Amino acid sequence: MATTSTAQDRTKTPRGNMNPQLHKAAREGDIVLLTRLMASNNRPDLTSSLTPQGNTVLHIATKFGHQGIVKEIIKQTRWSALVSQSNSKGDTPLHIAARAGHLDLIKLLTPTLEEGAPWRTDARVAWKTSNLEGSTAVHEALKNGHGKIALRLLKFEKKHKLARRVNKAKESPLYLAAEAGMSTVVREIVAQDDFSSEGPDGQNPLHIAVIKGRIEVVKVLLESDRAEFMIKEEDGFEKTALHYASTIGYYGEVKTEVETRTKILSLLLEVNPSLAYVPDKNGDYPLLIATTRGPFEGIKIILEHCPDSAELVNKNEQNALHLAVIRKSEAVLQYLINRPEFKKLINEPDKEGNTPVHLATMTNSNEIVDMLSNCVGVDLAVTNNQGLTAMDLCGYTAEQQMIRDTLRKFGAVPSRHKWQELLFLPLHPPPPPLVPPPRPVPTILVSISSNLKSATKTLPIVTTLIATVTFAAAFTVPGGYNTTAPHEGMPVFIRKAALKAFVFSDILAFCSSMAATILLVYASACSNDEFLISSALKTSSYIAGVSVLATITAFMTGVYVLMPIESLWLAIIAISLGCAVPIFLIWYSEWLEAQTKALKKQNIKSLAIH
Fold first, then answer.
1. How far apart are CA 113 and CA 259, in angstroms?
2. What is the DSSP letter of 193?
3. For 358-418, where are the E strands, in sequence order?
């Protein structure tokens, strides 16, 4: 063992013994200093004068881009071996020049065809040498974005077949050129007879060109002889280039990049539309990927080329409608349900028997439930594998109560089993849904619950204020009281119908506001019962509305009682203004709802146009 170790030590090249003056000459490009050192009696051996990383003087001069000193070194025959000498990382000076982008040094290190110079043996070795990462100088040029250098290296001595060389990262020159978007280099490589299209994770250059959005590279590859192979080839995740093209905009690209990726998707589908029917390792098709991750444009393009792909489902037997509902994308869902291919799929169940309406209910999406319930042919009585309709899945939060009301508006009813269950329930708030989906509580539900509790504290202030005012008004009737017999203590205008209307509306306002206040106080005491809070808040809101209207009526009739016949016009104005308040509020609420719906439709149309 000792003998072997000693032998190995002798074969190791000594490191870190470079003359400081020699290092300075190479670092600063000082030809005079180099010449003086080499003319001295103690001139250093350039092939064995190395830095700790095994760099020769030629490595250093090349790294700093000193053309003069590099030319001086390589013209000396006795130093020609430096051209192909590797450092501790396996890099030759050619690797370093290619990595740094020094085109002039590349021309010095490799003879040019323009000059007709013969090949040097040492240069030919450097040409083919791979470093410890398995990369040639071509790889280094491409990885660092130096297309001109890569082109120069590839054009010379094609018999060395540099385009076939693959490094340890499984990257071929074609793959690196495609990744960098160098369409000229890609064209040069695919024009050769023999080249590799290998890439990491089983990907080919078309995969990476699509991922990076290199449309010019995609065009060149699709025009090459290997286009049919590349477009069909699947990577290690069983994804074709079309699967990656379907995720347009998923990584937050700007508008111009999305437009470029849209064109790439169209190009791939024009060349081979059958790829839309190829699933990946997870059983997802391009349309389903676009629905889950991509924007509107990707879905639209795929359906334009392959309309029957609407029937494709994933491993959970969910089609694009199911996935759009799960994603809660109203724009995508509106586009899909307006297409004829999806009109007959509105009631399609997934593996668990859930239709899109079931899923919309589970995800607490009232707007989507409303959208689906409006579709022609939707069946709200469909049950899933557990025998539950969409209404059966409604819980007791405020959001789920809204969904229940929406479904009921479109004629939805509980399932037969649910009716039977309800008949035997005790008279207290019902339990949660029978089999709720194992989903985390969405943030929106947390905020809704918080808003409910806040409302139960705010609304009592309003109702208490109304009760206080109406209580005082009951004992200070308009016109005051008689002070003379025989009607002493009676209201002056007791015989007027307007005063009787005032008293009735005042009593109604007081009683309804007190009822709302008591109900809200009781609900706030049960702060952990969300069902009770939401129900009490809903009921008390209606009662409070009655008290507000009664208060307005009391005010109008009170003013009317006080006005003499000569000022009847003033009483009419007061009554008109009082009546205008509820009319305005009703009109405004309807107008606001109509504006919201119109805005949603406008957003969907704008997405469809783009």
1. 42
2. S
3. none
For tokens 């890569």, name the residue: 150
Q: Which two tokens stand for residue 201?
A: 């994770």
Hey, what amino acid is at 178? A
Domain boundaries, the chain: 13-160, 454-562
Which tokens sit at 316? 């959970």
pLDDT for res 284: 94
Name which of 610, 609, 608 is nearest 337 in CA terms. Answer: 608
At 484 the pLDDT is 62
**Whole-number Å distance between alpha carbons of 112 and 152:** 9
User: Which residue type does 246 have?
Assistant: S
Burial of 499 (0-12, 13-18, 19+ CB in 10 A): buried
In residues, how long is the chain? 610
Confidence at residue 342, expressed as pLDDT on a 0 to 100 scale: 93
- Is pTM beyond 0.70 here? no
Q: Which residues contact 356 (CB under 8 A, 6 or more apart)?
A: 321, 322, 324, 325, 346, 348, 372
| Alpha carbon distance 181, 183 (integer Å) | 6
Second CATH level (architecture) for the domain 13-160? Alpha Horseshoe (1.25)
Neighbour count for residue 249 (Cβ, 10 Å)? 19
DSSP 276: G
Q: What is the mean pLDDT for each group of 10 consecutive residues in the chain (610 residues)?
A: 37 64 92 87 83 94 93 80 90 94 90 49 68 94 95 74 90 96 95 91 95 94 94 94 83 66 93 95 93 84 94 95 92 91 92 93 88 90 88 70 72 57 46 47 45 68 83 73 61 68 85 86 69 74 86 83 76 82 83 73 52
Compute the distance between CA of residue 529 and CA of residue 547 in angstroms, rounded to an integer: 26
Q: What contacts 100, CB < 8 A, 6 or more positions away?
A: 62, 63, 65, 144
Q: Residue 23 has what pLDDT?
A: 92
Q: How far apart are CA 194 and CA 192, in angstroms?
A: 6
**524 CB-near residues (< 8 Å, 6+ apart):** 453, 456, 457, 460, 533
Confidence at residue 426, expressed as pLDDT on a 0 to 100 scale: 45
Q: How far apart are CA 318 and CA 354, in angstroms?
A: 9
Helical ranges in 251-355 per DSSP H:
255-271, 286-292, 296-305, 320-327, 330-338, 340-343
Calpha distance 385→407 (Å, rounded): 20
